[in-house]
Write a structure and sequence with these properties.
The chain has helices at about 30-40, 70-80, 160-165, 215-225; strands at about 1-5, 10-15, 50-55, 60-70, 85-95, 105-115, 120-125, 130-140, 145-155, 190-200, 205-210. By secondary structure, it is α+β, with helices and mostly antiparallel strands.
């Protein structure tokens, strides 16, 4: 675990691909518990440590996760995420396709979720039980086979980035569930929660935090191609 920002009310950490943010049926140790132990040790806190989970990243995704260290911050951050006041920018390495938009583009689909498959499906029109999904994306780098895409979410739907990019013929590298031809060796998908920006819920100061890059050297290569 790598801490990239902390104060009395919030802590932002870098999540490795493969880690879960919150406990689930696998029984694997979640990132939230690792952060609690870090706080307990660093500040020599007796008893239970308070930590609020305000958002999640899919298990194969890496990047920034924001936690609340106080109940006041948790309530305010929950409201900020709900009201779209926390701005997150993602980077994705995708299979290059002629359909990949050049320049900034708005992608709009209607997504349905299959709970049994843990997968979403995209349509270009509204269908029963679908939810509208919107994101902005632009290509910021190229290699011979891949493109580096910057994504800003305008809605928060299940597997939204993965599903919408796959729908335009550009599955994220390693994302077998959404059409990538092969997996990444470590089981990750090449999607990074790269930047988070918001007004601090207590101090009201602007917070801008950038993620480290994953260990895969392809990330560094793609950044050099920007």
């Amino acid at each position: 675990m790598q801490v990239v920002y902390e104060d009395n009310h919030i802590i932002i950490v870098y999540k490795e691909s493969g880690e879960i943010v919150q406990g689930d049926k696998t029984g694997d140790t979640p990132l939230s518990e690792t952060v609690k132990q870090y706080i307990k040790g660093k500040y020599q806190k007796p008893g239970a440590v308070f930590l609020g989970v305000v958002h999640r990243l899919d298990r194969p995704v890496s990047g920034l996760v924001v936690f609340a260290r106080t109940s006041k911050a948790l309530t305010r951050l929950n409201n900020m995420f709900r009201d779209g006041e926390v701005h997150k920018t993602y980077w994705a390495i995708v299979e290059t396709s002629p359909d990949l938009p050049q320049g900034e583009q708005l992608l709009t689909h209607w997504l349905t979720r299959n709970e049994q498959q843990n997968k979403s499906y995209a349509y270009d029109h509204e269908v029963p039980r679908s939810k509208k999904a919107m994101l902005r994306c632009r290509v910021i780098g190229h290699s011979d086979r891949y493109s580096l895409v910057e994504v800003q979410l305008l809605t928060g739907r299940h597997h939204q980035i993965r599903c919408q990019l796959a729908a335009i013929g550009c599955p994220i590298k390693g994302d077998l569930k959404y059409g990538a031809p092969r997996s990444n060796p470590d089981g990750s998908i090449s999607l990074l929660s790269h930047l988070v920006e918001f007004i601090h819920p207590v101090s009201k100061e602007p917070i801008v935090v950038e993620s480290p890059l994953p260990a895969d050297p392809l990330w560094s290569h793609m950044i050099m191609k920007r």
